Amino acid sequence: MPNFRSPLLFLILISFFCTQLSCTETEVEALLSWRSSLKDPGCLTQIWSFNTSSDSCQWHGIKCNEGGSITNLSISANCSIDGTLNKFNFSSFSNLTRLEVEYKQNLHGEIPKEIGTLRNLQVLYLYGNLTGEIPATISNLSKLTNLDLSGNQLTGSIPSTILSMPKLHFLALSGNNLTGEIPTTIENPSNLKILDLSYNHLTGAIPRAIGHLTELTIFYLDNNELNGRIPLEIGNMTALRDADFSYNNLQWEVPTTITQLPNLSILYLNNNQLNGSITPDLGNSSYLKAIDLSDNKLIGMVPSSLCSGGALRYLRASNNSFNGLLPITLKNCTTLIELKLETNNIRADISLTFGVHPNLEDVDLSQNHFYGRLPSNWAKQIFLLSLGENEIYGKIPSGFLNMTQLQLLNLADNNLTGDIPEELTNSTSLMNLILSNNNFSSLRYIQAPSLESLHLSNNRLVGRFPLLQINWARLMTIDLGENNFSGEIPSWIGSSFPVLRILRLRSNKFMGNIPLQLSMLKNLQLLDLSNNNLTGPIPNTLSSMHTMTVKTAPNQSYFALHYVHEKNIDLIWKGKEATYQENIALLTGIDLSCNYISGKIPDDLMKLQGLIFLNLSRNQLSGMIPQNTGNMTSLEVLDLSMNHLSGTIPLSISHLTYLNMLNLSHNKLTGQIPPGSQIQTFIPSAFSDNDGLCGFPLPNNCSTQNNSVVPVTNEAEDHKFEVIWLICSVILGFVTGFWVYFGALFWKNSLRFAVFHFTDKVQEKIMKWFV
Amino acid sequence: MGAQGMVFGILGFLLFATLANCNTEGDILYAQKQAWVDPNNVLDSWNQSLSTPCTWLHVTCNNDNSVIRIDLGNAGLSGSLISQLGELTNLQYLELPMNNISGGIPTSFGNLTNIISLDLQWNALSGPIPSSLDNLYYLKYLYLNGNNLTGSLPVEILSLVTSGSLITLNVANNSLSNTTQPPQIKVTTIIQDLNIISV
Fold first, then answer.
1. Where would you find the membrane-spanning parts of this chain (chain A) (predicted)?
2. A682 contact residues in B (CB cutoff 8 A)
């Protein structure tokens, strides 16, 4: 048995054990002392523990070399440590090659400068909430190949020597708060294969030295504040495959040298300030898969060689000033999936633009100057098709309609004519049908069961209300305005549209009464029936339209989301026409103006506390304005003009603090105009042509006028009185006339003779003429 | 030669300045929205991404898409008034009664040269009544009552009675100190021609 009292023997024994147990004491001590410095060591308490058979080299996440020195140290994502690297003794780990701390734990504080002493380090991944600057000493890690500090909160500039590290081939600093410029000294030639500096606040220009990055395949600089030119030297980056420079302030032209890049597959330059035109050769020597040039100031032709590599799937160039698109660009582009060229000035013949595209799913060419006739049989798989606001004419060809997956069709604001084909109106896939502002003249009944919105306004459509009595489970918008529809508004409307929000039938020839069943439309926000031939009363059950009774709720996002594909709803309120887009979700209004509606304004209407505008003008409404009009506290616009309303203006109107447009003119209202600071803001013409009204802002005072004392008579009684007078005077006239004549004849002989003589003569003359 | 260059330079700068269009009316109103606390979400429709504020609720524009009315009485708003509101040069009606708006009345309101009605009654405004309001030639109704305004009523504002359009002035229920009577305006004239409720 060894004598432990001998220190030398003890040391020999320990070192013997240490070698056998394959651990380096200093390294283990450093690990453990770092662990004890952590606020929360997380899983390390269990993972880094000695039990009978484990040594440090067998701990999870630790790997050692043959000499027992730690080479790999990784802490996995679910370890949940909370602490800093301040007490990590870097100089102990001379053989460390991989140091990885994975995402989603709270590694905070700064990166210590001492990290530069890990002279054998090849891979460094540090994720967490690290702050402070990237230490320049990192450039001393001469063997470093992979550096990933993404997703922290690092600040300051990128160290100027970092792109000169000779062995580095993966550098990712994305998602920090880095500022300053991209280092201009880059190793030549550089070994970098992947460079990701996206989502920071980098400024300045892209350095010309990027030409040295001849091995670089992935280059992400997006979401920064870079400006200046894209350097010509980009043409030297022959390995470049994916380049994303989007969401910066890059200016000037896209360099023509980009066309030299043989491996270019993805090019995102969108959301910058690039101008000038793009060389047509772009795409000629590569297999371009996706290109996004949107939201710049580019002009000229859409480059015609984009698809020449036969691989183009995604082409986006919207929101620029492109003015032409050659037929050759897309003719043979059979791989195309998405085409977005909306909001440009492209003048091209749409019938020549396309070939056959079996993979095409999403096309948006709206807001351009495309002309010509719609092509047929060009894209059977298409989901979303927007060609609105162009100059396309002719009819919808039947071959156009083999699109069995079509969900959105927007052909609005063109010059299309003819039929709206049955294939469209019966399509089972169609959700949004937008054909407004064309010259369509006929359609069959619509029974597309998935329909969410139907916009047919401003065409020449005729016939009865064109939807069938089916269960329209999803239909939210019906806009049939500005057509020649006729007949009655069907009464089944209330039960067939459970989620209807907008019913716009204005400017047609609908007649009959407003169906009571409209009040069953619980979700209705906009009811526009103006400028029709409707008669009868306003239904007194409209307060059941629940959405109009509540003040606008904070969460309108559901409805707003569905307007992703909606373009416009045209409303006339606040005295002028306005086009509503996203804000439509917050609007509630009823417009029944320009009809022949009669009867009284129902008191029930005043329960609509969420109603924002109410226009009942130009009808034949009678009776008084309901006393509790002031209950409509959301009301901004109230137009009751040009009716036969009588009585006084209810005092409660002065409670409407949001009211900014009031028109009560051309009625038979009497009495004093209610006082109040809100009412004071309306000009006298809001009250004009009401004989009995007095008080501010009208010039006539109430107390000194007879007007104010005129008894309040019911309109119906007035009318009755008039009729009685008419009948009496007729009878009186008849009686008087009879007795004057008869009396004269009776009493005066000479008169009698004269009259009868005259009558004989006339009779002879007439008989002579006949015979 | 040098003078010519300078002229061109100045013209160019002016052109640039007008084109720069830094603070549109929508931007101003949006900044005001952010300065206010809006528990009832009445300003939900104030969406900055729209090109004009003319489709916003509580905002009315003229035919040139310039703001002429803001009607937000009894809307539950608190926070303060930003001075950029004074840049809404076409504003005719600013109706903000019965809220909890605090802070001072911006002196920039003196730049609202087209204003006809300024209704700030029943809020929590403090500080003085700015004398710059005497610039408001078309102002007819000025409601400042029911606040915590201090100082005295600037005599310049009373001149709006004789040389402006002011017919209603209400500064009651504040913490104003005694107003000095301007010597040239007779008391009787005020009572007859001006609905002055009380000071």
1. 723-747
2. none
Nearest-neighbour CA in chain A from B155: distance (Å):
24
Per-residue model confidence as pLDDT tens digits over A141-154: 999 999 999 999 99
Q: Which of B41, B54, B58 sits opposite A658 (nearest CB)?
A: B58
Q: Is the ipTM of this complex over 0.85?
A: no
Specify whether the CB–CB gap between A474 and A498 falls below 8 A. Answer: no
For chain B, which domains are there? 3-195 (3.80.10.10)
> Touching check for A681 and chain B: CB below 8 Å?
yes
CA distance A721 to A109: 93
- Residue A499, C-beta contacts closer than 8 angstroms, at least 6 positions apart: A473, A474, A475, A476, A523
Q: Which residue of A has its CA nearest to B53?
A: A583
pLDDT band at residue B174 under the 50/70/90 scheme: confident
Report the alpha-carbon distance of residue A346 to residue A340 in Å, rounded. 12
Q: Given a cut of 80, is residue B168 above it in pLDDT?
A: yes
Angle at A60 between CA A57 and CA A61, to 5 degrees: 85
Residue A556 and residue B60: Cβ atoms within 8 Å?
Answer: no
Residues B59, B62, B64: CA angle, nearest 5 degrees: 120
Tokens of A239: 């390995």
Cα distances (Å, whole numbers) of residue B191 to A128, A675, B145: 73, 19, 18
Q: How far is A193 from chain B (nearest CA, A)?
A: 39
Of the candidates A578, A658, A681, the beta carbon closest to that of B93 is on A681
Locate the chain B residue with the closest alpha carbon to A654. B73
Taking 90 as the threshold, does the pLDDT of residue A134 lie above it? yes
Tally A–B CB contacts below 8 A. 76
